[in-house]
Specification:
Order of helices and strands: HHHHHHHHHEHEHEEEHEEHEHEEEEHH
Largest sheet: 6 strands, mixed
Oligomer: single chain
Number of helices: 16
Radius of gyration: 25 Å
Strand content: 5-15%
Number of domains: 2
Length: 516
């Protein structure tokens, strides 16, 4: 009998919304993550974002808005980044996987801080301010040694006609479009708004989205792809290079390439990130690469004495050419943020992980276009493909083709590699360049200037795959003007805050001064 009483009390408590104030927000965050996992549903992600915007705007205090935002963000990142601790546990053991779990709440806190601060500064104008705040938040997540822009809302539109807006304003414009739609829907469904105003906002939203979708659906006639490339996928365990299997990797990539070239000539060959653990400037390897008979771009260690660099090289029959060093390093994977300050802590953790000799890589400082034959390649090395500014800089310097070399085998077979690939597709749209991607175990693919996947190799197999591409010369508005959406958002958000604090005060029906 006592057990039944306890169960009834527990059930009543569960049914009391006051006891679980953030449960709906957690459910909305979970829904947002699930929508992003299914391309045909990704555009519906505006619905959970609408819920989030309404909940933040209607919060009575900053603390309440922070709690709601954190519940949403934590649920989202727990699903969206579920692959990360799982794959790191496979690579670094249970301790490594457990430490990587911290990325989820820390990512959630970045959204929480931005949402709560917007509510505090914008007050009754929160719905209006949130789209601009989102653009600024996501731009900040691409900066500094902790940069980690995974989960930016704009990437939800990659498989919709609205993705073509990226050629005008980059992924920032996609993020603004999606979140502005959420705020507009929030205004429409808010019961306190006047019917005439709600209908006007709904009409404006539908008109803008329809116009953008029609514009994005109208593409030029199919371009003739006059060049062919060979994407070589070695499917090697990345741990092998730590075991001194240098020559095995070299022989594998040479054999795969030579076999494919005997069957069909290619204008370009692309090997993945860290395809060989030897510098191609080494005489024996350099000579073998030059004898392949086709221009080559490959990933290998940088040849700077005393430094560890992750680099890409261009090689032609005349020798090894320019080198592009990886500029944005993976936090805690390729570099230890604030290493000078936290060295004792890092030393203890690395020893526990069995990596006492770990050294951070040295980041590159320059964007270098690699000329190989007719190609002037703008190369992004793995993680760099999620940073729009790097591809833009390369095109500004004359790149007529984008190349991504990657080694997503560290991600395992889970969703991380697919997310990485889908994010990189936006770089092709932003710059209107063909993008060739070669991954150690995939995803290896060719993408056209409108973000469409032309060819995609099966993941997890060894092989050399022929794809077609075309060299492009034009510059998009995004390439010419850069992050104008971000700077505009800063100015508009500042204007909203200034008007609220010092502009003419309107009589309000309710108190609009959220307290911390």
């Amino acid at each position: 009998m006592t057990d039944r009483i306890y169960f009834r009390a527990w059930r009543q408590r569960l049914g009391n919304s006051a006891s679980w104030p953030w449960l709906p927000d957690s459910a909305a965050g979970l829904t947002f993550a699930l929508f992003l996992m299914v391309p045909v549903l990704a555009a519906l992600s505006v619905l959970p974002l609408t819920w989030l915007h309404l909940r933040v705007a209607q919060s009575q205090t900053v603390r309440q808005s922070a709690g709601r935002g954190f519940a949403f963000a934590l649920s989202f990142f727990a699903v969206h980044l579920a692959w990360l601790p799982q794959s790191m546990a496979t690579t670094l053991g249970p301790l490594g996987g457990s430490l990587t779990l911290l990325v989820i709440p820390l990512s959630a806190l970045t959204w929480t801080a931005g949402l709560a601060l917007t509510r505090r500064l914008a007050g009754s104008s929160t719905l209006l301010a949130l789209p601009f705040a989102w653009v600024i938040m996501e731009w900040l997540r691409t900066q500094g040694s902790l940069a980690f822009p995974w989960g930016a809302p704009g990437y939800a539109l990659v498989d919709t006609p609205l993705a073509q807006l990226a050629s005008l304003g980059g992924v920032s414009l996609l993020t603004f479009t999606l979140t502005a739609g959420a705020s507009a829907l929030g205004y429409v469904v808010a019961p306190a708004r006047r019917l005439r105003g709600r209908l006007a906002v709904l009409f404006g939203l539908l008109s803008a989205l329809t116009g953008a979708a029609v514009w994005g659906s109208v593409q030029p006639q199919s371009l003739t792809t006059s060049q062919t490339a060979l994407l070589v996928q070695g499917n090697l365990d990345p741990r092998l290079k730590m075991q001194g299997a240098d020559q095995d990797a070299v022989n594998l990539y040479l054999r795969l390439t030579q076999t494919a070239l005997r069957g069909q000539a290619a204008d370009l060959v692309v090997w993945p990130e860290t395809a060989v653990p030897l510098q191609p400037t080494a005489p024996v390897l350099g000579a073998a690469l030059q004898r392949l008979g086709a221009p080559l771009i490959l990933g290998a260690p940088g040849d700077v004495p005393g430094q560890l660099r992750n680099s890409a090289y261009g090689v032609t029959a005349s020798g090894v050419g320019r080198r592009q060093d990886k500029r944005v390093l993976v936090p805690f994977g390729e570099q230890l943020p604030f290493e000078g300050l936290l060295r004792p802590l890092y030393r203890s953790v690395l020893t526990a992980l069995g990596l006492p000799g770990y050294r951070s890589l040295t980041p590159g400082q320059l964007t270098t276009v690699l000329p190989v034959g007719l190609v002037r390649a703008g190369v992004s090395i793995c993680y760099e493909s999620v940073f729009a500014r790097l591809s833009r800089q390369a095109v500004q310097q004359g790149a007529n083709l984008l190349i991504v070399i990657s080694n997503d085998a560290w991600f395992g077979t889970r969703g991380g590699a697919e997310q990485h690939f889908q994010m990189g597709r936006i770089r092709a749209i932003e710059t209107r360049r063909y993008l060739l991607r070669a991954g150690n175990d995939g995803v290896s693919a060719a993408i056209d200037p409108w973000g469409q996947v032309l060819n995609r190799a099966p993941r997890g197999v060894q092989g050399a795959f022929t794809v077609a591409y075309r060299l492009m010369q034009d510059q998009t508005p995004y390439v010419r003007w850069g992050e104008w959406v971000g700077w505009s958002s800063v100015m508009v958000l500042a204007g909203i805050v200034l008007v609220r604090r010092w502009g003419p005060r309107r009589k309000a029906k309710h108190v609009d001064s959220p307290e911390a």
